[in-house]
Amino acid sequence: MSNFKKVTIHEFLWLLTKTQKEHIDNGEPIPAINKEGQGKIEYCLEAPFMGFGEEEFYKKFDDKAAVLFYDICKLHCLLNGNKRMAVETTIYFAWKNGRYCFIDKEVLKDMAKKVVESNADKKDEVIWWISRVFYGGIRKITTWMALKILLKFGPKILWFAIISLFRRAIKT
User: Fold this and answer.
1) What is the pLDDT of residue 119?
2) Any bridge partners for residue 55, and if so which?
3) Residue 110 has what pLDDT?
4) Which residues lie across from 56 on neighbouring strands?
5) Which of 2, 60, 127, 160 is the one with CA 20 to 30 A from 47?
6) Closest Cα partner for 94 from 106, 80, 81, 108?
7) Cα–Cα distance between 114 and 73 in angstroms, integer?
8) CB 150 within 8 Å of CB 157
9) What does DSSP assign to residue 29?
10) 148 Cβ partners below 8 Å, 6+ apart?
11) Which residue positions in the chain have pLDDT lower than 50?
12) Do residues 100 and 145 touch, judged by C-beta distance below 8 A?
């Protein structure tokens, strides 16, 4: 079994609410999730951790993140905003697992468009491509990196980091 932490449905719904607030005025609001959409999202959040018996299909972080990104884009869980939620959820998944996404959000949005436009028969090739991009652009957070992130983003990220460290300390 993997040591990576899953994004829960509650965390996804929190991200959805946050993203809805950010995009409410730009002419492309993200509607609330319906019951069918919630079932699809739950599948998307589980898909990176699926396997057969004790053997997971996707063992490496980059592959898990790629499957998560692909499925949220491609399965149309929401009436609008699937690509944006794929980006936000993948960035959060990275953070939750002690990694930072250095890939610009605009690049991630372009990747999401390519995923949506891709042929479903090419799923494995598209996931492989995404995982290669993530391999180069999502890195484990070192102490030095954490300081650089704090300097760039300031107190908002510091508060999030303190909460994350506190949660980790409680579990150990």
Assistant:
1) 95
2) 52
3) 96
4) 51
5) 160
6) 108
7) 10
8) yes
9) P
10) none
11) none
12) yes
> How far is CA 21 from each of CA 83, 110, 160, rounded to the nearest angstrom?
16, 22, 19
Domain residue extents for the chain? 9-141, 142-172
The tokens describing 54, both together, are 């004790």
Judging by beta carbons within 10 Å of its beta carbon (0-12, 13-18, 19+), is residue 139 exposed, middle or buried? middle
Contacts of 38 (CB under 8 A, 6+ apart): 9, 77
The rounded Cα 71 to chain-centroid distance in angstroms is 11
Task: Report DSSP letters for 68-103, one per residue.
Answer: HHHHHHHTT-SSS-HHHHHHHHHHHHHHHTTEEE-S
Q: Which of 44, 57, 61 is nearest to 7 (CA)?
A: 44
Amino acid at 1: M
Can you give the pTM of this predicted structure?
Answer: 0.82
> Which CATH number does the domain 9-141 belong to among 1.10.10.10, 3.40.50.720, 3.10.20.600, 1.20.120.1870?
1.20.120.1870
- Strand 138-140 versus strand 99-101 pairing type: antiparallel
Q: Which residues contact 34 (CB under 8 A, 6 or more apart)?
A: 79
